[in-house]
Amino acid sequence: MPLRMSVHRYSMALLAYAFAAIMVGTTLPTPMYALFAEELHFHVLTTTIIFAAYAGGVLAALLLFGRWSDVVGRRPVLLAGITMAAASAVVFVLADSVPELLIGRVLSGLSAGLFTGTATAAVIEAAPAAWRGRAAAVASVVNIGGLGLGPVLAGVLVQYAPRPLDLSFVVHLALTVAAAVAVLCSRETSPRQGKLGLQRLAVPVEARSVFVVAALAAFAGFAVTGLFAAVAPSFLAEVIGIGNHALAGLIAGTIFLTSAVAQVVARSMNPERAVALGCAILIAGMATLAVALHVGSLPGLIAAAVVSGIGQGISFSRGLAAVSERTPPDRRAEVSSTYFVVAYVAIAVPVIGEGLAAQAWGLRTSGVVFAVAVAVLAAGCLIAILSASTHSKNPAPQLVSEHEPTDAVPEPR
């Protein structure tokens, strides 16, 4: 018992490691899509469909099991997510067909969907008193940071280590085993109350106006992260003419890593100004991407990832905080789940559209069109925020709350 109590003191750190380790696996295949395409003879459209299968798994887990950790406990749901992640790694190691790759991505999405809300809640609840005010920021950083580290790790292993299509997943399998140990050693933080059921998706009347603007900004930002996670290696190889997998992984990971940093830096910003600023930065990122693809510039592609990551991180995190502040406490779980459903639809649908466009027009042209479309959407959000602020003290789509901004950004459970 004394040993168990001593280990439980580190529950927050253990859960944060498990969270990051599982999220690493969700972006691990990014630098390998080109190798799978070469081995299995498919094109960019198939790559985007395989990538989008992940979002389908996330959405299924959010809707079917989003409330389960409140009822059965955090640890059982986290262990189920770890099991899905390990199964995904095994499938990828054994995969020799497109259907098997799709199964691997769906399993990875299920693991992320089980983990995202549950691990966020567990990290916050396990935080010692000295870390209570920063626990939500820690959860956000390990979530997005894990997404960013996945392609970087895989890119290095694919480029410089043996068995490029297997080793990354073997390494991740080891990380999942360690994550299981970490969860088993942590303390249970759920009150275990309520009933099992589907996660309800709804937005109360008092939050709908702010939700529309924030969700559109989130849609634009997540569409860009999906583009880089799915297609950045193809941009690098086919448009710029560089076939280095480590560099491809670094570019794909950069947008997530800069997003994580931006979320921490912006966590005390006024929500309205932050979302407006994030949209403006995202527009700049898309302009940079369009120019980089048009002229075939590597520095431009890297700059686009950095700038877009900053814009996405600011607009997403502060938009969710603004929505949360306008939402009654007993309805925040369903509203944040709705917000995340919009985000994960944005990861999947526009990227598949990019694949279809690439098949019809070529990768360079389709990438430029994608960048312009996202810039137009972000500009619409920016204009709505600025117009409302200018013409009314209490505008419908305003993102200012009556309360002070909070760091405790809710996640779907």
TrEMBL record:
Major facilitator superfamily (MFS) profile domain ranges (all copies): 9-392
Positions of the UniProt region annotated as Disordered: 393-413
A GO molecular-function annotation: transmembrane transporter activity
Residue ranges, compositional bias (Basic and acidic residues): 401-413
PROSITE patterns the record matches: MFS
Transmembrane domains' residue ranges: 12-36, 42-65, 77-95, 101-124, 136-161, 167-186, 207-230, 242-262, 274-295, 301-321, 341-361, 367-388
Localization per record: Cell membrane
GO cellular component: plasma membrane
Keyword set includes Cytoplasm: no
Taxonomy, superkingdom: Bacteria
Keyword Membrane: yes
Principal cellular location given in the protein's record: membrane
Keywords noted in UniProt: Cell membrane, Membrane, Transmembrane, Transmembrane helix, Transport
Topology with respect to the bilayer: Multi-pass membrane protein
Protein name in the entry: MFS transporter
Source organism (scientific name): Mycolicibacterium obuense
